[in-house]
Specification:
Belongs to the Toll-like receptor family. Keywords: Glycoprotein, Immunity, Inflammatory response, Innate immunity, Leucine-rich repeat, Membrane, Receptor, Repeat, Signal, Transmembrane, Transmembrane helix. By secondary structure, this protein is of the alpha/beta class. Among the domains are: about 60 residues; about 90 residues, no CATH class; about 100 residues, Alpha-Beta Horseshoe (Leucine-rich repeat, LRR (right-handed beta-alpha superhelix)), CATH 3.80.10; about 150 residues, Toll/interleukin-1 receptor homology (TIR) domain (Rossmann fold), CATH 3.40.50.10140. Helix content is about 20%, strand content about 15%. It is elongated.
Length: about 950
């Protein structure tokens, strides 16, 4: 039947092979994509923020290799790194700040920093370096600040600092240096040099440099100086000279020209233990430019020292001290100061007398024009109304750590320009109206760590300029209406660690400018989630940050659903360690601008699904140690702007794909301390941790399995879950491969097997029709005649008269007996299965006809299916073997049935019709038992004889 279909043209064949070739290309590309996946985003022991900052504190022994090259800030302090080699930092060209302090680094290979040409600040303090070698800092051409404090450095090689041409700050304190050679030779722009607590006994200016330096600060404190020789003016810009605990008895002080230190403004000679003559030499080298003099730890020698430096027997100042602006007399044993001690210090602005034994405010301070007075850590037990009389210029007053007990309403009456007042740790239990009328310009008032129990109405009403009020660690129990009346400019209020249980209506009503409120560690409690009539923060619409963690309360207590009502601009809130088991779903309805939320260390087992829905601007969520069993609540939160999620030390073990995909902006995820299921439930999450490029999962390398038991204690990232992971890349690869193979198969089939497929198609159709019609009963016709319309003349003129008129057979002809309106294939099938036999009148036109091909296919299938002789072939003409070969193979498969040739019946036409009658008359014998009717061994065209 497939002999009648047309042959595919050459152009279509060429297109087919082009498709096959392209398919091979697609297969190759897919294979390469599958074999070479991209790297993941897991950095062992490091927290990376926005791809620019890396903080790694996890007992690391080597420099981590996985840090992205985009990082500009790295903090590796406090690890166990012992060595830096050339490859440690080769992938970090953008580094600006590197902290390697508090490690065990004893060796740095030459060339380690050759890539870090942008580095500006480096910390190598508290390591085990013994020597600074040549080439150690090569590449650091833009380094500005270098910290080498607390190593074991004994020597500095001549070319150690050769690359550090822009170095401005160098700290070599607490090492074992004996001299200062090779430090300033290659650092022409060094401004600050700190060398305290070394083993330097001799200071020679020629060791540092043979030309002028740009040093502004030189710290030689805590050395055992025996010789100080300055023979050249190499310090023209030096302003700060620290010699604390370095001037001992017997020191040789040689400054050949006092102008060499003409720029020194600040001199620290605390702890001096030199002879009077030696001290005089030191002080006289610093001329009238001296503005700051620090004289701590002089103790009983203070009086003598002042006499020497100022050339008078009392505490009046010499002409050398007339320009002094800051005088530090702290940490001595002063018990009293004479009334005229500071009379000559007309330019004095800062006076520090802290940590002495004063029992009252010295009268001498009233004679000064100082702006800052520090009397902290003395024994002053009371303040009088005239202690600060006429000190209207005073801006900063420190009285903390004195046993003041109580204040008077007149004590600060003259301090009209005071900005800062520090009264912490003073045992104050009552304010007694000290701030109801005075200090109108006060901006910072520190009353922490006292014994205040009650604040009267309007206690601070004169403080209209106050911006910061610290009342932490007192004994306040209740905040009443009017407590903070007058504080219209207050921006920060600290009430931490009091005993507050209740905030009455209107307590914060006058704090319209308040930005930060700290109520941590109090006893605020509510018994129900139901709304309360007077929300405590209803009038704090400008509040930005609220601390309300660590409330000491029974477990049954809750926060009312409208607890945060009024906080429309709140950005940050801390509600940690409150033993909360639940929050009302409407808790955050009143804080639409919340940006950071801390809920860690509570007792939540579950979070209401819609709890976070009102805070769509949330960027940081901390909810660790809360017994969470699942993160599914995040699916309903719609936190599309969340950047940081901290959910460590909870009880969930599975993290699902929808949860993570719902956090589209997440950059940092902290899951430390959770126990994970190492099975297919976490397969997607494991692959996501390794492959995602946006979110860093902190310390993922140390996540441990808790289930199943045989994997307990294993590292999560070491588990192979490829067998249960749906890998879209692999699926695409398989799909593409199958598509390519199918394309190749179609190309091959279309080229070589198209006729066999067509044959199989029609064979299947015949089977379907056979199944439908074979059980319909007796045959309606003796034979169905299948012919081409071009052969209709022979059928009607020869075949029909002979078989119907003369022999009496009933034939089925398509032009006469097919049912009009019925599908043609149904007509064909019904005709074939409704007839005992099928006569196929075969000619060249017949073989080229599509419908004739279908008719012979159905008849052939009936023959094959029923295993009966139901097919008669009548050849009207001789046909070449190449046109009959597929048909001939089919006939050989069916053991060659009846064949009749009209073209060879010219000599014996009667025999032809007799044979045809016999074929029609032959009953349906099983194949193999039929009567031999043909006179030939094969179809016409195969043998020449009849």
């Amino acid at each position: 039947g497939f002999l009648g279909l047309k042959e595919i043209n050459k152009q279509n064949q060429r297109s087919t092979w082009e498709i096959c070739f392209c398919s091979f290309g697609i297969l190759y590309f897919s294979l390469n994509s599958f074999i070479f996946p991209t790297a993941g985003y897991v950095v062992k022991g490091c927290q990376i923020t926005q791809n620019t900052r890396a903080i790694c504190k996890n007992s690391l022994k080597v420099f981590p290799k996985e840090i992205p090259e985009t990082v500009t800030f790295i903090d590796l302090s406090g690890n166990n790194i012992s060595k830096l080699n050339k490859k440690a930092l080769e992938n970090l060209p953008n580094l600006l700040h590197l902290n390697l302090g508090h490690n065990f680094i004893s060796k740095i290979e030459s060339g380690t920093f050759v890539v870090q040409i942008s580095l500006k600040v480096m910390f190598l303090d508290n390591n085990m370096l013994c020597k600074l070698q040549d080439g150690m800092f090569d590449g650091l051409v833009n380094l500005i600040e270098l910290h080498l404090t607390s190593n074991q450095i004994q020597t500095v090689a001549p070319a150690s600092f050769m690359s550090l041409s822009k170095l401005g700050f160098l700290d070599l304190g607490h090492n074992k240096l004996r001299d200062l050679k090779n430090i300033l030779h290659h650092t022409p722009h060094l401004q600050s040099l700190y060398i305290p607590a070394n083993n330097i006994s001799i200071f020679h200016s020629w060791e540092l440099s043979n030309k002028s330096t740009e040093l502004v600060t030189l710290d030689l404190s805590q050395n055992e100086l025996m010789f100080f020789r300055l023979t050249a003016g190499i310090f023209p810009k030096l302003k700060k000279l620290h010699l604390e605990d370095s001037i001992k008895n017997g020191i040789v002080w040689e400054v050949s020209n006092t102008s060499y230190l003409r720029s020194v403004h600040k001199l620290d000679i605390s702890g001096v233990r030199s002879s009077l003559h030696g001290l005089q030499e030191v002080l006289e080298t610093c001329n009238s430019s001296l503005q700051y003099l620090k004289l701590n730890h002089i103790n009983n020698n203070l009086q003598v020292l002042i006499n020497i430096s100022c050339k008078i027997p009392t505490l009046d100042m010499l002409h050398l001290c007339t320009n002094l602006k800051e005088l530090d007399l702290g940490m001595n044993e002063i018990t009293a100061i004479s009334n005229n001690s500071f009379k000559s210090l007309r330019k004095l602005k800062t006076l520090i007398i802290k940590s002495n034994f004063l029992t009252s405010v010295p009268y001498a301070v009233r004679k000064t024009q100082i702006l800052k007075l520090d009397l902290s850590y003395n024994n002053i037990n009371a303040l009088g109304c005239d202690d600060f009389a006429d000190m209207k210029q005073l801006r900063h007053l420190s009285l903390y750590n004195n046993p003041l007990m109580a204040l008077k309403d007149c004590v600060f009456k003259d301090l009209v320009h005071l900005n800062v007042l520090m009264l912490q740790n003073s045992g104050i239990d009552k304010l007694n109206g000290a701030f109801k009328k005075n200090t109108p310009n006060l901006e910072n008032l520190i009353l922490s760590n006292n014994h205040l129990t009650v604040l009267d109405h309007g206690e601070f009403k004169a403080l209209n300029s106050l911006k910061n009020l610290a009342l932490e660690v007192n004994k306040l129990k209740q905040l009443n209406d009017g407590t903070f009346f007058g504080l219209s400019s207050l921006r920060q209020l600290t009430l931490r660690s009091n005993e507050i249980t209740e905030i009455t209506n209107g307590a914060f009503s006058h704090l319209e400018a308040l930005k930060t409120l700290n109520l941590e560690s109090n006893h605020i409690k509510y018994a129900s989630l139901e709304p309360i009539p007077y929300p405590p923060f209803a009038e704090l619409s400008q509040l930005d940050t609220l601390f309300i963690s660590d409330q000491h309360r029974p477990r049954r207590d809750k926060f009312p659903q409208n607890f945060l009502q009024g906080l429309t601009n709140l950005s940050i809130i801390y509600i940690q360690r409150n033993q909360l088991k639940t929050l009302h779903p409407h808790t955050f309805n009143y804080t639409p601008n919340l940006n950071r939320l801390h809920l860690s260390e509570n007792a939540f087992a579950d979070i209401p699904n819609n709890l976070f829905s009102p805070i769509q601007k949330l960027k940081r969520l901390h909810i660790s140690q809360t017994n969470l069993r699942s993160l599914d609540f995040l699916l309903h939160a719609n936190l599309t702007e969340l950047e940081l999620l901290q959910v460590g030390k909870n009880t969930f073990s599975v993290i699902t794909e929808p949860v993570m995909l719902s956090l589209s902006a997440l950059e940092y995820l902290d899951l430390q301390g959770n126990s994970f299921s190492c099975n297919c439930d976490n397969a997607w999450f494991l692959q996501w941790v390794i492959n995602n490029k946006q979110t860093q999962v902190f310390d993922a390398n140390n996540f441990e399995c808790n289930f199943p038991p045989n994997l307990k204690g294993r590292k999560l990232l070491e588990i192979d879950v490829r067998s249960c992971t749906v890998d879209m890349g692999f699926i695409c690869y398989i799909s593409t491969t199958c598509a390519v193979i199918m394309t190749i198969a179609v190309c091959f089939t279309h080229k070589f097997l198209q006729w066999h497929l067509v044959y199989a198609y029609y064979l299947m159709l015949a089977f379907l029709y056979n199944s439908k019609n074979k059980d319909k009963g007796a045959h309606q016709y003796d034979a169905f005649v299948s012919y081409n319309t071009n052969d209709e003349g022979w059928v009607l003129g020869e075949l029909l008269p002979k078989l119907e008129d003369e022999q009496g057979w009933r034939l089925c002809l398509h032009h006469r007996d097919f049912q009009p309106g019925k599908p043609i294939m149904e007509n064909i099938t019904d005709a074939i299965y409704g007839s005992r036999k099928t006569i196929c009148v075969v000619s060249r036109d017949y073989l080229e006809s599509e419908w004739c091909s279908r008719e012979i296919q159905v008849a052939s299938f009936r023959l094959f299916d029923e295993q009966k002789d139901v097919l008669i072939l009548v050849f009207l003409e001789d046909i070449p073997m190449q046109q009959l070969s597929p048909y001939y193979r089919m006939r050989r498969l069916l053991k060659r049935q009846t064949y009749l040739s009209w073209s060879r019946a010219d000599a014996h036409p009667d025999l032809f019709w007799e044979k045809l009658r016999q074929a029609l008359e032959t009953r349906e014998h099983p194949m193999g038992e039929h009567i031999r009717l043909t006179v030939e061994d094969g179809p016409p065209g195969e043998r020449p004889d009849h």
